[in-house]
Every structure is written in C-alpha cells, then in structure tokens.
Write a structure and sequence with these properties.
The chain has 296 residues and is an alpha+beta fold. The chain contains six helices and 18 strands. Bound molecules: flavin-adenine dinucleotide.
Length: 296
C-alpha cells in the first residue's frame, strides 16, 4: 500500500500470521526490510499517534479476535542472512527461521544450537523469548546482538550486557528490536550434526501435538516441577472449551481444534491457574504472549 513510507498491508488477518491460527485484522501490518524501514515506522507511529506491537513468526502469540486498531510490526521480511565466521561463529539476521539456522549450520559442520530444534519462529523471536528446551536456552550461545531503536539509532550489545532469565530478556528498551545476532557454535561432523537434528525433531513429533495449531507450551514450568504435571493433576488433560483443548498428547499445549477464539484459550488458561492455585498452592505463569498495543 503506497500511502505508507514502508512496506505495509491493511486489514491483514493475524490468524494467517500465527501458529495458533487465531487473531482478527491488523489495521496496518508493516513488513520492514531494513533499519531505514524500521526508523520510518517509528516516525510514522509518532506522527500518527498509533500503537503497535512486534510480531515475529507468530509462534508464541495469542492475538485478539477483534484485531488491532494500530500497527503490527512483522519481522518476517527483515534480513535473514546466515553467514559463517571464523571460530565456528555464525552471524544471522533477525528474520532467519530457526529451522534454517539449524539445517544450514549442520550442513556446514556447525553444531551447538540443537536446543532450538523444533522450536518454530525466527531468530528475533527466539532471542526475545530466550527460547530453548530442557537442556538450554539461546542465551547459552548468543555472543552479541544488534538492536535497532524505532526512535532512531542502533547499538551492538555484547555478551556481558545480554541479560536473560527463563523465557525472558532484560536488556532491550521498549522501543528496540532485535535486528541481527552472532552465535557461538561448536565444530562437528556434518553427518553427525544432521542426524542429531533429525533425531531431535523425531522426538518432538512423538511427544508434542505439532500437527495441530498451537503456541507450544502455554505456561512456564514452575520451580521444581513441570506445568504439564500440574495441569494433569488438577484433571484438565483433554478439557475443552469452544474450539480449544488441553492436548491429550502434551497437556501444557492448548490446541486449536478448529474455530478456537482467544477467549476460548484464555478461558482454559484461567481455569488452570485457578485450579492449580487452589489444589496445589502453586502459581502458573503464562509463557504465551497476549499482545497489546503500546506507544512510542
Ligand atoms: C509447536 C510449538 C512448539 C514450541 N516449542 C517451544 C520450545 O520448545 N521452546 C521454546 O522456547 N518455545 C517453544 N515454542 C514457542 C515459540 O516457538 C517461541 O517462543 C519462539 O521463540 C517465538 O518466536 P517467533 O518468531 O514466532 O516470535 P513471536 O511469537 O511472533 O513473538 C514472541 C515475542 O517476541 C517478540 N519479538 C519477536 N521478534 C522480535 C524482535 N526481532 N525483536 C524484539 N522482539 C521480538 C514479540 O513482540 C513477542 O513478544 C513452541 C511453539 C510451537 C507452536
């Protein structure tokens, strides 16, 4: 749409951009390709006093069915280069899909990123969420990040300033986005790295309902236990509301069985939090992000 000083579409359905297949229209959806596009979006947001939120690959997002009267900044078309540097280091753009990082690196004989195997999303989303699995997080092998500020400017953030906790980052300003990163890999035999990757994906397929739309794990694991155990022990495995259900296969997943709304999923989330508090005296905290418009 030419009226915007950056690539954009109007009334784009978020259901088409999220793994949950839930979400109404975004008044404006921007698809920046460069730092300049990001700064143009920032200037436009201020000038038009519009709210916004950032959307990566939409793998961890539970969007509103009503949609958003504002701008959704989709990072899909940001640079997605995958460059191999000396010392088994890899430089990649925020728009690079985790799956391409893993496949491309394994082919080159670079290992070390396998905690991201089967984690949908792109590198920007993986850094923001400190994505990973039982044995580690992206934090473990992230050396440096470039953050672009929608208000103007960009900065390189070194390892000692990159602060993370479980599924959270604590170094970006509200107006900053992850634009590129450097990751530290380890050298490996390409055959071994590729078969390790295939094994990891096979294990996920066996354990998770990846054939259904979802956001992966809905809750973070509480200290000392697993969210799925809590959900199971309060009797919610398989519980359904509208089109949403606590998966029989992995009950920390709420799957969209067709036509689920944000309210259906929130209803199940609320019920799990209430019952787990009541019966186990534990607080469950969401890993899934419910986006809200914010202002620059
Ligand atoms: C089947 C399935 C399995 C999953 N398994 C796992 C798992 O094992 N481990 C795990 O950690 N997660 C898992 N997830 C959740 C999800 O894949 C991760 O959270 C992923 O890192 C999200 O990346 P994304 O690009 O999709 O980001 P989105 O979901 O689009 O966004 C997530 C958050 O990151 C922010 N964000 C996105 N890009 C940027 C950027 N460039 N700069 C600043 N902020 C940004 C968004 O504003 C939002 O707050 C799973 C999801 C599914 C559907």
């Amino acid at each position: 749409v030419s009226q915007y000083p950056f690539p954009a579409l109007e009334n784009e359905l978020l259901a088409d951009h999220t793994t949950y297949r839930i979400g109404g229209p975004a008044e404006v959806m921007a698809f920046p390709r460069s730092r300049e596009d990001l700064w143009a979006i920032g200037a436009w947001l201020k000038q038009n006093e519009k709210g916004y939120f950032v959307l990566g690959n939409g793998s961890n997002m539970l969007c509103s069915d009503e949609g958003y009267k504002g701008l959704v900044l989709c990072t899909r078309d940001l640079p997605n280069q995958l460059d191999f540097l000396e010392g088994d280091r890899v430089s990649c753009g925020a728009g690079l899909l985790n799956s391409r990082l893993l496949r491309g690196s394994a082919q080159k004989g670079i290992d070390g990123f396998s905690v991201l195997a089967g984690v949908p999303g792109n590198i920007g989303g993986a850094v923001f969420m400190n994505a990973g699995a039982g044995t580690g997080w992206i934090d473990d092998f992230l050396l440096e990040a470039e953050a672009v500020d929608l208000r103007g400017g960009a900065r390189f953030i070194k390892k000692d300033e990159l602060r993370f906790t479980y599924r959270q980052q604590h170094f970006l300003k509200d107006s900053e986005l992850i634009f590129a990163v450097i990751l530290q890999g380890t050298s490996a035999d390409p055959q071994v790295a590729q078969s390790k990757l295939a094994d990891g994906l096979k294990k996920r397929k066996a354990a998770q309902p990846i054939e259904m739309p979802s956001c992966g794990s809905v809750f973070r694991n509480p200290e000392g236990t697993s969210a799925w155990k809590c959900i199971e022990s309060v009797g919610l495995r398989g519980k359904k509301v509208g089109g949403a259900r606590f998966s029989e296969k992995h009950c920390n997943f709420i799957v969209n069985e067709g036509g689920a709304t944000q309210a259906d999923v929130l209803n199940l989330i609320g019920e799990a939090k209430r019952l787990v508090k009541e019966k186990l005296s534990l607080d469950l905290h969401e890993e899934v992000v419910v986006p809200r418009l914010r202002f620059l």
